[in-house]
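Late entry, written up from scratch paper. The run itself happened at the end of the previous shift, but nothing got recorded in the book at the time, so transcribing now.
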Amino acid sequence: MSLLARAEQVARRVTDRLTDDGRRERLMRSLAAATSKPAVNVWRPSGLSLGGAGLAVMCAAFGEVFPGQEWEVTGHRQLTDVVAEIGSSHLDASLFTGMVGAAAAVSLSSADGTRYQGLSGHLDALMLPAMRRLAEDAPPGPHTYDVVHGMAGWAGYLRTRPRSSEVEGAARAVAHALARVLGDGEPHRMSRRRTRPGQAAETVVDCGLAHGAGGVLAALSLLETHFGFGDGEIACAIRRGGHWLAAQARTVDGQILWPDAVARDPAPADERPLHAGSWCHGSSGVARAVYLAGVAADEAGLRDLAVDAMRGHCRRYPELASPSVCHGLAGQVLLALAFAYDTREPVFVTAAGRLAERLHHRYRDGFPLGFREVEGDGGAEVDHPGLLRGAQGIALTLLAAHLGRPPRWGRLLLLW
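Output as recorded:
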C-alpha cells in the first residue's frame, strides 16, 4: 500500500469514529480509562490537539488532495461545532487547546481565503487586538511564551492569515514580546522548577520546541522571515537566542545533540539526558529552531550547525516508541521533510522517505485507529485520535511525506 493510500485509510478511520457521537464517546471513554493523562486527553469541539478543530484541519488537508469526496462537508460540520463552543464558552488564548487553535482551523479550512471569509474576519477582529494587548502586558512564566500554551504558538496562526495592517501589527507586538525573552542573552523567562527522581528540585530552562527556548526562537525567526520587520531589537534577539541555544549543544559519539533542559546553576559534573528524536523535546526539533534562526538572521554558522546536527540524526535514526507527531516517529518524519525542503540534500530526502516507510509499517489493522500512541518511555498504549499525540497527526504526516511539499498545517508546529 502506498503512503497516500495509507494516509487516506487512517484519515477515514479517524473520521468514521469521531463524526459518530456514539463511537466517539466510546473511543474517548476507552482513552480516559487507559491513559496516564486523563486531564489532558479530553475531546473538545474547539480543540486543535484533541478535538473538532484538529479534525477540521485534517479534513482540509485531505480535501485538497481528494476534492469532491465529502472531506469539505465533514470539516464544515466540525467548524460549526467549533463556532458554537466559541460562542458559549470562555476559551484561553492557546494554540492547541484554545481560541487561537480554533481560529487557525478556520483559516486553514478557508481554501486560500475563498471560504469562511466572514467568520475569519470576525475572528481576526476579536483576536488580533487581544493578541496585541496580551503581548504588551505579558504575565511572567514559561507558559506565557511557549508553543503549546503561549505566544510562540500564535506565530503559527498569524502566518496563515492574509497580510494586513492589523495582522502585521499583532505580529510585531508578539515578536517584541518574544524578543524580550531572548534579548538578554539567556532566556531566563523560560525558567521553571523541576524535580527529577532522586534529586533536589532545580531551576531549569527548557531547550525544546514545544515548551522551551527552542519554540520561542523558532516562532520569532519565522515571524521575522515572514513579515520582514526590519527591527534591530528583533534581529538582535534572534542572533542572541540562536547563539545561546547553539552553545548548549554537545557532540556525543559523532552526533550533535541537545539536552532537554539546562540548569540555571549547573553543578560542575552536571549530566543531562541527550537524545535526537521528537518534535517536542528532542534534538532534531532544537536543530530546526537553530536553523530557522540562521535563516532569519542570515548567519551561516547557525544554519551549518543545525544541518550538521540533523545529518547525524538522519544517518543514525533515533529509536522512538511512539508513532505520534509530538514525541514520536511522525514528528521525526516532519523534521526530516523540513530540512529536505530547505536544503534538497539527499541525506534528508532519503531519511524522510525511510522514516515515513517505518511509520507506514507500524500500522495494525486490529487497532481502532490503525496506530496506538505510546505514552512516555514504554508507557501505556492508547488509541488516541488527536493531532499532536494521535492518529490525526499520523495521517497528516503520511500525506505530507507523499506530497513532497510543505503543507500549510505544518506552520502550526513551527516547522516552516
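Strands lie at 191-194, 202-206, 250-252, 255-257, 261-263, 373-374, 381-382.
(Scratch paper discarded after transcription.)
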